[in-house]
Backbone:
């Protein structure tokens, strides 16, 4: 979809993106060479720039650069207290960068309904797809909700341990009402219909998907070989 | 909900409820996972901390969806999202899968609707997160070599080594059990104080 409308950005099949995520994991856990890591991160960044996430790519590139800078220049030379308290955080952060990049791509450029169609095409049971997509979709709503509750707590001057209860209870209650409302909406739209679901979205592997996957597989091999 | 007890197959509503509470569970879980990066002790106590605070979404979900598979789905979703963020190892996958299955068994035995049964299921479910620091004991030498190579500072590595005693292993397993019991009771307190009154359980 949208292929005719926005020709200037590349669009991948959601299944390609999911496979890329798996590959990002594989590379993250097998590679031991900093150059393989940098090459992998840079090519993923290029990929998401081509797909149109320029802003996010810039931010991620800056963050990755800062991580490298910290780990290789500031920690060895700077004060020891800095190194001992932040190294763990920085090395963990560096490790999850490839996944973060692919994750950004999926979150920004793939609507949840396309993701659902892709998962359905992979023959994943409906019983898993529904809760999974609800979970993913609920994170932003949860963030918004917490913001409102924080504001309300500030107005009422709630502090200390009481804050926890005042945060959790409204979240739980609103989560329950959301569940009710969402189910009512979903049931009316036929979520319980046992028939095979059809979709408006046409999903096909294109040249760019194969190219991208081939590239990913190549990287996995390199990282396993070098490591 | 009387008709939910007779019909044991997951409906759309149950699936959506599980999805929403899994999101809350994951957020709580993730917050403590991040804290674990600060010091190895926090990492080893992490399953316990999570157990104390994640009881409310779990117990509410368990009260709302009294059907087989609910706990398993919650665990599976957590696992899948962790996998997507690149922080998942095979050990934690196995520990979570096995505890989810045991928790399901506990719920079948206790017929899904008792507080005690759900608490037992919750304690077992909480034990699943033990798999995160468990590699320290399972493959001690390899693990230490690996984190050294990844650029962890010597202080951290020696702290991990010092902590990887047998006593700490027991703490690792006992913490989520105690935490789980506390978490379940916190959940019950809040149920009585708020949720029953609001009519949502």
Residues:
């Amino acid at each position: 979809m949208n292929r005719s409308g926005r020709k200037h950005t590349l669009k991948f099949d959601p299944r390609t993106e999911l496979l890329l995520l798996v590959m990002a994991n594989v590379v993250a856990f097998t590679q031991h060479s900093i150059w393989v890591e940098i090459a992998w991160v840079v090519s993923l960044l290029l990929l998401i720039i081509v797909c149109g996430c320029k802003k996010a790519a810039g931010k991620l590139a800056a963050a990755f650069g800062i991580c490298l800078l910290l780990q290789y220049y500031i920690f060895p030379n700077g004060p020891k207290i800095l190194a001992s308290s932040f190294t763990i955080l920085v090395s963990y952060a560096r490790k999850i960068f490839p996944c973060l990049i692919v994750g950004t791509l999926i979150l920004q450029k793939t609507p949840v309904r396309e993701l659902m169609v892709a998962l359905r095409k992979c023959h994943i049971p409906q019983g898993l797809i529904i809760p999974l997509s609800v979970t993913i979709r609920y994170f932003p709503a949860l963030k918004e909700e917490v913001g409102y509750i924080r504001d309300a707590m500030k107005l009422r001057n709630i502090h200390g341990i009481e804050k926890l209860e005042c945060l959790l209870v409204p979240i739980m209650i609103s989560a329950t009402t959301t569940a009710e409302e969402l189910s009512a909406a979903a049931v009316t739209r036929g979520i319980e219909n046992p028939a095979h679901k059809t979709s408006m979205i046409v999903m096909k592997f294109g040249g760019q998907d194969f190219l991208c996957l081939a590239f990913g597989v190549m990287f996995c091999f390199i990282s396993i070989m070098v490591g | 909900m009387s008709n939910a007890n007779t019909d044991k197959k997951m409906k759309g509503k149950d699936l959506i409820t599980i999805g929403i509470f899994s999101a809350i569970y994951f957020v709580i879980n993730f917050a403590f996972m991040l804290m674990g990066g600060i010091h190895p002790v926090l990492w080893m106590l992490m399953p316990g901390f999570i157990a104390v605070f994640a009881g409310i979404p779990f117990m509410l979900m368990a009260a709302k969806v009294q059907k087989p598979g609910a706990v398993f789905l919650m665990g599976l979703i957590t696992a899948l999202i962790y996998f997507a963020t690149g922080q998942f190892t095979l050990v934690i996958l196995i520990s979570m899968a096995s505890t989810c299955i045991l928790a399901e068994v506990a719920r079948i035995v206790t017929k899904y609707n008792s507080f005690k049964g759900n608490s037992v299921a919750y304690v077992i479910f909480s034990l699943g997160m033990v798999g995160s620091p468990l590699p320290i004991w399972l493959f001690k030498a390899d693990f230490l070599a690996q984190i050294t190579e990844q650029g962890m500072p010597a202080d951290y590595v020696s702290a991990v080594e010092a902590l990887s005693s047998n006593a700490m292993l027991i703490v690792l397993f006992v913490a989520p059990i105690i935490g789980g019991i506390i978490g379940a009771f916190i959940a019950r307190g809040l149920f009585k104080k708020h949720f029953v009154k609001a009519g949502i359980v």
Notes: The CA atoms of residues 187 and 193 of chain B lie 10 Å apart. Chain B touches chain A through 46 residues (CB under 8 Å).
